[in-house]
UniProtKB/TrEMBL annotation:
<comment type="subunit">
    <text>Interacts with DERL1 and AMFR.</text>
</comment>
<protein>
    <submittedName>
        <fullName>UPF0729 protein C18orf32 homolog</fullName>
    </submittedName>
</protein>
<dbReference type="Pfam" id="PF14975">
    <property type="entry name" value="DUF4512"/>
</dbReference>
<comment type="function">
    <text>May activate the NF-kappa-B signaling pathway.</text>
</comment>
<dbReference type="InterPro" id="IPR026776">
    <property type="entry name" value="UPF0729_C18orf32-like"/>
</dbReference>
<feature type="compositionally biased region" description="Basic and acidic residues">
    <location>
        <begin position="42"/>
        <end position="56"/>
    </location>
</feature>
<feature type="region of interest" description="Disordered">
    <location>
        <begin position="42"/>
        <end position="76"/>
    </location>
</feature>
<comment type="similarity">
    <text>Belongs to the UPF0729 family.</text>
</comment>
Length: 76
């Protein structure tokens, strides 16, 4: 059984997004743009930041070599 808020909240959000937002957002967008400027975070010139070496990663993000070694040990 699903609780009432778990069904009502998504329906209300869908109704807002599809029916009310196209009319309400143009009215509140000037106020929102004043509160949150476009550049909230400074840009970084380091293009390699956050990039990792994923060439040995499997489906779940685990290295395929490590899982192959474990499976080889189980076979012996």
């Amino acid at each position: 059984m699903v609780c009432i808020p778990c069904t009502v909240i998504p329906v209300l959000l869908w109704f807002y997004k599809k029916c009310l937002e196209p009319y309400i957002y143009p009215l509140i967008s000037p106020f929102v743009s004043r509160l949150w400027p476009k550049k909230a975070m400074p840009e970084s010139n380091d293009k390699n930041k956050g990039k990792g070496d994923y060439k040995d990663a499997g489906i779940n993000g685990l290295t395929t070599r490590g899982t192959a070694e474990i499976s080889d040990k189980k076979k012996h």
